[in-house]
User: Fold this.
Amino acid sequence: MGKVGDFIKEQWNNDPSIRLVKRLFFRRQDEAEWYHRQARNYLNYRSKKFDFELGVQYCKQAIRLKPQNAIYHYTLGEAYLVAPSLAIIRGANVGFNLPRAAKLAIKEFQKVVKFKSDYAWAYCQLALAYEYLGDKEKAKDSCQAAIKLSPPQNIKDFAQNYLNALEAEIPASSDVDDALRKLEEESLKNLEQAITYREEGKFRLADKEFEQACQLAPNSTWLYRTMCELASEQIY
Assistant:
């Protein structure tokens, strides 16, 4: 290593001020990770500890300690993205106006790909958030960005299938319009039934009704808007 290298190594290991900086640095690392673990625990809607607002606050604290950690931003973005769903199936009090959820998620996922540009799944989540807002072009761009990263095959297939669905043209006709209205009506019934089951404490049944609603929904934009409206009615 040489004399200069040996000197630097000795200073790094023995200098009191450097030891203090190292202790503070690693303490900060450990503290941030602790907050993030707590956030994940509270954001798990299947856990008895589920508390959306508390989970978000813990995640924000982890980000304050390590603002460039892509995983922490991903956790927060994912929480925002599923907030309307959790408001339906668990009655989660999210602590903000639900129609803002997609925009808040986009902000976090943009930070994810800024700090970790090869995070393909974050681009897939960005696509859904953009589609929630009705911005199909940005949703397509996000899918294409994920595909270009050559991610694992399952993620690549998901992004490609999602892109194909976004690019599919639905022919305009009265029959198609009637079919879409029928899908909306059926999906809405499932969402309302999910809320009923949730209020009765029948969470597994609520989950099943919600999954069926998602399958029947004519598109993600309609689903997002409807979830926000129904959940807001429950709150107010």
